[in-house]
């Protein structure tokens, strides 16, 4: 497919999405939920076409020499399909936020002013490998009353096309516009460049993937991007921390899973508490095979307890390991902890363990991160744990949505004004 | 000043603003309010330096042959100074929204999750001519706990420098960082290019000025822009409208002032009501010298009533006249009215006059504009009339802030999570 055709294709998708978005914005909650349930049913009852499409992608990936984990991520097993089907049903069961009116108040002029929640319009989602994201994105679009243009990874193109067909059939079944969810039909990279530069059709871009992809998209996009870069999360153990609680929290934040963005990558401990705390958490880490990259003071204590420590270098303070590695630093007090976090953290999630009310309040207010926590694990920074019902992503930006983003991140609030003939004097 | 120096200057402003922003975010409401009152006092008591600086700008403008209205906009009369001083005092009297916590709820895991309102960090404001905007922007920065970098018009540079000095003195007087509000010291245009492309220091740009300036900044900015383009606002008179009410509203929306962005530029009337309504509103417009640019049906009725009408051309439906001109179109029904508005309006403010509940609800929900109104004048779309206390601008975007933007538009919500040792299982 040449560049000219890609342009035409993207233009057509944009126009159709825009038209569908207007219809989706008007759609009743009941109809949208019916479409979600139909999609869940079609996923569960999917015929051989889907399995065959998926097999073609897998064969191609194996032939291309992709690593086993990369090939695994492509697989639409019955378990994966059941999980995304369940996700659709959960969305269907959630209350609909579109059309809600908040803060309606009467003004001195007599007019009543409030805000109505409405869909943003059209979102573009750009993602890599896992084809199940096609269904996640489609179901979010349906529930939120937006239209979506989806661009999946080239390695999953056959699976994505087969899944997108199930979405179209579900939309058609309930009388919603099939263009509400469209898949980019080409693997040409030029299509991404067009998708992120069509402000006339696309209201927001949501990239999912590696940091490189997200940085490139953010740099080149002509529309807003709900972006999640890295998660360099910290736990700070304060002077007055309950040591047993701190052990449990730091252990959980680091070792419960290594790969999530809300896992802790840095541990800060005050001078006063370090001699008591570091030998104990060091023992836990040593047992679990977690490498400790320590500043001089922390290293001395860890080694003094007969455990292995690696000398941290400057780059350790900024790194998102996503692995069995943690940086450890002894700090003088809460001031130094807050300063360190604000300098090195990725503004994702940071926690303090303390009994000191003033320190807790200062940490909450002054740490400039999307989620700030007292006496609990950074691993809770998640749309479902925060009660959002669905998670579009986690935003490390401050503009529009910040932190875990639910359906509301795909909406905007417009002012509604009700009068009885009032005019401005 | 050469390009190299401009870069260094902007870099220094950015670094200093970032450092000041952290201090401003921590500042108590009482201190910020004290700074605002000190600024009001200094504006009222301003010595000859300010008047002399302003006189130099005016002399230069006159010598350069600027038009009389342009020269007038530069003048810092005692009345202008009293008005901005009063604005500072009004902001000081407003409740402080920084640090408020909303929606705190306990989750099944035991953690409590809410959101805290915090400043965005650093905003850049770019404005033309009127030097009083320096004070408006400075006072918004102080109240909202942000730092600001201000870039005023070159024609007002001397006045802006003198005003910025009063701001610095007020900040210093109460112990707030003087770098919280900084004025770009050069009139080199390169400085604007740098200001809008420093995501490492600047969180959001607020341009105030002509559409050309705002379009250019939006296109080139590497950070989010709170932008207000044009206001092509409509009033739609529905079948069931109370004719006297419709007359009052349409008259007010069009003629109370011609220059504001929330003045009506288009009138839509249903076929059924046009023969009754158009002769009467036409009489009002004719008396006030408002030119009527009509489609064929409207033109026939207006001319039939013995009044002058101009034939509208396609471009009339999109135009923001900001003058004694209105476009008039007869539509079949509420569907055609909504479709026309969604196609041609600038998504600023649109109103329906009706007694029909279903039509009112559909108009509110389906018209894709920042402010949608029933039975009242578009002229009410304003931060003060909406009870926001202060107005940063009116956003025609959907992302982050939409419609009139108050102090909250300069803030973000971060998640706060309170635990008692809970961990993720």
From TrEMBL, chains A, B:
SUPFAM superfamilies: ALDH-like. Its EC number is 1.2.1.41. Pfam families: Aldedh. It catalyses: L-glutamate 5-semialdehyde + phosphate + NADP(+) = L-glutamyl 5-phosphate + NADPH + H(+). The keyword NADP applies. Gene3D superfamilies: Aldehyde Dehydrogenase, Chain A, domain 1 (3.40.605.10), Aldehyde Dehydrogenase, Chain A, domain 2 (3.40.309.10). Keywords: Amino-acid biosynthesis, Cytoplasm, NADP, Oxidoreductase, Proline biosynthesis. It comes from the Bacteria. Pathway: Amino-acid biosynthesis; L-proline biosynthesis; L-glutamate 5-semialdehyde from L-glutamate: step 2/2. Residues 16-287, 293-387 form the Aldehyde dehydrogenase domain. GO terms for molecular function: glutamate-5-semialdehyde dehydrogenase activity. It is found in: Cytoplasm. InterPro entries: Ald_DH/histidinol_DH, Ald_DH_C, Ald_DH_N, Aldehyde_DH_dom, G-glutamylP_reductase_CS, Glu-5-SA_DH, GPR_dom. Belongs to the gamma-glutamyl phosphate reductase family. Catalyzes the NADPH-dependent reduction of L-glutamate 5-phosphate into L-glutamate 5-semialdehyde and phosphate. The product spontaneously undergoes cyclization to form 1-pyrroline-5-carboxylate. This is Gamma-glutamyl phosphate reductase. It comes from Variovorax rhizosphaerae.
